[in-house]
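Exercise 7 asks you to align residues with tokens for two separate proteins.
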Amino acid sequence: MKKLFERICVVTLALVLALAPVLSAEAATNYPRRAVELVIPFGAGSASDTFARQYAQIAEKYLGKPINCVNYGGAGTVEGMTYAWGADTEGYTFMEITPSLLIKELMNASDIKFRAEFEPLLKVQNDVQLIGVAANSPFQSFEELKAYALEHPGELKIGGISPGGLDDYIANGFAYTAGFQWTYVPYKAGSEVKAAVLGGELDVYQDKMINFLPMVQSGDIRPLVILSDSVPDIPELAGCVASKEVGIDFTQGSWRGFVIKKGVPQEVKDILIDALKKAYEDPAYKQMEIDQMTNLSVGYMEADDWAVAWDEEYNALHDVFLSLGYIEE
């Protein structure tokens, strides 16, 4: 009886293995049979929410079925990640991400290890980050600011949203790479950061281009350095330097892309990826990039290259957060 049972198990396993390619191909042939769900692990109305919804409207034209966007913004992206992780592997749920998901893994904020449980589909865009000072600041150039920071470690204050988040990493990662220290002050909202800079509570202002440039145009902020390879041809940035140009190899900004839970058949992923790629080339998306000022840095990256970039960025995050005492070896 035991041997008969073993033979049945072997035959069953062989049949499953033999049918797997057929089932996978059939799933791809019929995919998508219904609407697909895009998980946005951020609150409604946020920049990432707006981007994801606009992109989904473009991509669904090429997918052939609706892409329904759902917000799960609790616990700083952990709620959304948990929801997407709980989906089946038929490919009807995928998720938008930013560097916040890598940070949550590094900070051990969830039992779900992001890179172990998800795989990339397509990275779409980068935000470019700038650093400046209030118009009445004594610092007229980045070199002056850097020289002061080197002579007075930790005295200068720079602000952002939440300790241990992306703003914190950008501010301190830039300083870490440049070889100096300043003090990061967390606030609850970007509006509070702006008010603190203009009110003299903060010495240094950091923000992405679309938020930073209006502050320059209004005369409130003097731009000093853009975290990029070069300075874009924008009149308001005359006199600003690029981090790479002054020997600081740090160009981190936010970025956005799409991932899916591991285990989805490759044939299904290919269909979804194809729709996302076609959306990237669509004129409507190109106009989005112009409107959101994300066309100043090439953000497009396909799955294999993006997976490598995840690991590189995770390691960089680790080094900076370790130096700040946020994590331990």
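Second protein for Exercise 7:
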Amino acid sequence: MSRDPVRVMIVDDHPVFRDGLRQCLEARKEIRVVAAIGGGAEVWEAIRAHGLPQVVLMDVEMPGQTGIELTKELHEKHPDVRVVMLTAFSDSERVFSALKAGAVGYLLKNVSPEEIRSTVQHVAAGEPMLSGEIAGRVLLEFEREREEEHYREQLAGLTPREEEILKLLATGDSNREIAKRLFISEQTVKNHVASIFRKLQVNDRTKAALLAVRLGLGGKPAS
């Protein structure tokens, strides 16, 4: 039993590239390009005229509304439409902005026609797709974000006094110096430091200080 072809919309402000991409995709009977447009308001006009596509191949940089802005709007209005960014830019900021806007794939324009066609079919089937060059970088960044979120959750478990002491640890103050600053005993500082280590799951002042700086707690308060 044959399946209906995947309905694809191309959004790119370069007519030559757009037409070439249409020909590339339509070389496969499993794919049908329902619209090839330049961006902006044309997206909504095309949807009204041709119905919702299953997959949108979206350029990142376009005059007026960017591909990332369009992707966010499209994802909010029609979350079932699968957007793949197709662009010459591979910098991390664009990649992560696109994925956070709702894109499920990110391909560079220098990939082979076969990879583009394959991506369209996989994405239509519900699979996220990233080119090999980008996938590793994205996984590392998301892992870093998850790790940072974990640390922030730990940080939220500190009392105001412990957070105050952690900030002073980050400046290199000794227990004695912290005690003088806060008008408490050195033993009380030691008790707070032990509690901080336990909550942050670190075992020395250096690691605690590095974590504080990483989470934006560095900087010595006024005397």
